[in-house]
User: What shape does this take?
Amino acid sequence: MLEIPVIRWGKEYESMSRMDVVHFETGETLAQVHEANGGLIKMDMKKARKAREILREFSIQQLVDMCAKAGELYEHATLPLGNGEQDPDSFCTMQSATTGLPEHMCRFNMSKNAFVMKHMGEILDALTRGLPYDILSNGYGMESRGVMVSYQANCNAAGWVLPSNSPGVHTLWLPVIPLQIGLVLKPGPAEPWTPYRMYEAFAQAGVPREAFCLYPGGADKGAELGAAVLESCERSVIFGGLATIERYHGNPKISAHGPGFSKILLGDDKVDEWEKYLDLMIDSVYVNSGRSCISCSGIWASRHTEEIADAMAQRLGPIAPLPMTDPNSGLAAFTMPGAAKAMSGQIDDGCQSSAVTEVTAKYRDGDRLVEKERCDFLRPTVLHVSDPDDPMANTEFMFPFCSVVECPQDKMISKIGYTLVGSCLTDDPVWSRQLLDATNIDRLNIGEVKTLQLNWLQPHEGNIIDFLFRARAFQNSPPPAH
Amino acid sequence: MSELEAKVAQAKEKLDQHVRESVAWHFNPETGSPYWLDKAKTLDFNPLTDIQCFEDVKKFPLFEDEDLRGGPLEKWIPKGLAGKPTYVFETGGTTGIPKSRVVIEDHWIDYENFSDTLPDEHFPKGANWLMLGPSGPRRLRLAVEHLAQYRGGICFCVDLDPRWVVKLLKKGKTEEAKAYAEHVIDQAMTILGANHNIQCMFATPKLLEALAMRLIDEGSSVEEAGIKGIFAGGTEFTPQWYRFCKEELLGPNVFITPTYGNTLMGLSCGKPFDPADNYKITYFAPQPRAVIEVVQFDDYNKVVNVGETGRVKLYTFTQELFIPGFMERDEGEREEPIDVYPWHGISGTRPFHELLKTTTVGVY
Assistant: This one.
């Protein structure tokens, strides 16, 4: 049996409490993870300063180079995992088997993570706006333009309470180690694989193990462990639903990431050419099984919405679940009992509105909900929504789901609500200006960019540099007379 | 027959005898409580003649603790104890009318019996105590205070309203709940720092952890604060927490022992620590005054085999209270009798999995 220990600043710890990580289709136990307790995490965090001190024994450039090497190892090497080892293929197989994500998507996410690790230098350069690394290491320094600047780390270690359902989120914490800040990870119950594999890759690449804590745990322990991470780390990130976002709203120590409500907006100047953008729209909804916060859940236009919805439904409606090993498998499984059924029920309830029509049903041979013995699937669903104020106009589910919403262009920005990624198809300079000024859109794409096509040189849901560091005043000589 | 088997048989006989005496008291029109005398009229058997041993108690329907909500509380007082000073203790009560239990001396007797299990070297006689748990209309505060007094000490207490904390948590006000917990720890720190010769403690796992962390943050420790012995209770006292406590939170010189109980039953002791147990925690009810059974999830009258998992079923047979089978909100594994407690125990106590989703665990 593969046993995965708790990692406490690089030291393995065998707990009295263990959780089985099981194959969602067969019920086979793939590994046993050791579960920490909340107090143990709080105790470890009292030693967080050491993690930063150890990392500061290396330059940021050295750590960036190690990060690139780690990316190579993560993607291609056979690495130790607990009392065993894991090659890249078995990593993808195991991740698929516990998260329900088809294997080819696991491989895609692996490549994405590795890409970010290998390009960490460029990413840090972009996120710091070219700040010399020494300034972050030392806390202050003179820029080439002769200005003294100071960036003070807000924390010695940053905590991440990770989800099980989206292996792509791991890209977000990767800059922490090269920024010389200790890393504390609470993996999702079904996805210990990526954090442990990356930890091992970093260690093999030369990053001191003492910079890492990993506290895996099941659903029963998750709340206790997550709360301990959030409480004891000076900066932490949590992934969750809307309730989680609301709970931590306004808390400067905690960045809560949740549903993205990402959208494509078709401007009046482009909407008559909507067929030209059909692939862009479908890929934005369907790729990665619609699981990501950057997956498109709404397509907004002032006209042609029924035709757009119908064209998308013709392509998406027939898609059915395939085995996880099938390279054409496009739908992820829901491994949590009842989750898919509940979502399907919510959609059915929403379709009771006179403004809402499910368009996919006529192109689908069977129900939206496909119930299997140990998991469920939801088949792609496209709704047409004629009223932008209808609740179904702004809804997100973790499968290929999209509402095509009819809304006048001049009302769109005010009606779309919070939008993590807004891909806007327009050449209209006036509307572009309004979109640029819209604070409810986080990542703005003006042009033919799929919502999932992220440029890693851009910040995501806030700049991690601003979250982990504080720009402040520093003087070591009096200012010029004035 | 081995020595243990003989002790088990002896304990069983003692329990059967105790049950007969308890039934004779509670169903005697001269001594029984109005509640049970009324209840007897609804039964299809006669407790006074048909209950001759512990197994016979299963003829009773399960005790519904909903009956404990509301008054008049006098219905619970056995006529044989009428006129004695009476306490009322509550459980739950975050919403609606709380469940109440009247007590005359049971809490004293339970904790005096428990006192006999405490090692004097870790709980010195004459030393003072800190009660770091819920205050208000709860049995625990007065029981621990009596324990301290029974052992020749004085008990210092904190103000802690757990119902307020549960309300905060239900509203998602985690920061306020945390501030309240800090307020409780502030009180404990003040007491510990005031030269009161406090060497013994009761604490809930969460509060003990918070206190120990605060002491560490201030460059001290539970040991340096003068504490020698602690007893703590509840399903949060897990094997992993036990190990963490002994290895990291308290250190080797502070003794800690787990307990398990509630307002209805009293206090179950943990099996004395043995490294061979690998921090497994096994509880034994204070028989014959109370009994714990681990019963099948689909048939509450059938115990599971040793090592198997089931739901906790409690029985209480004191002069003040008769509970012929109450389903507790916990589950665990049934354990073999041991020499000091020659009756079956329970390990791995944790919230009953079917109720887990609806329970809010508060600050203590």
Summary: Chain A is about 35% helix and 20% strand.
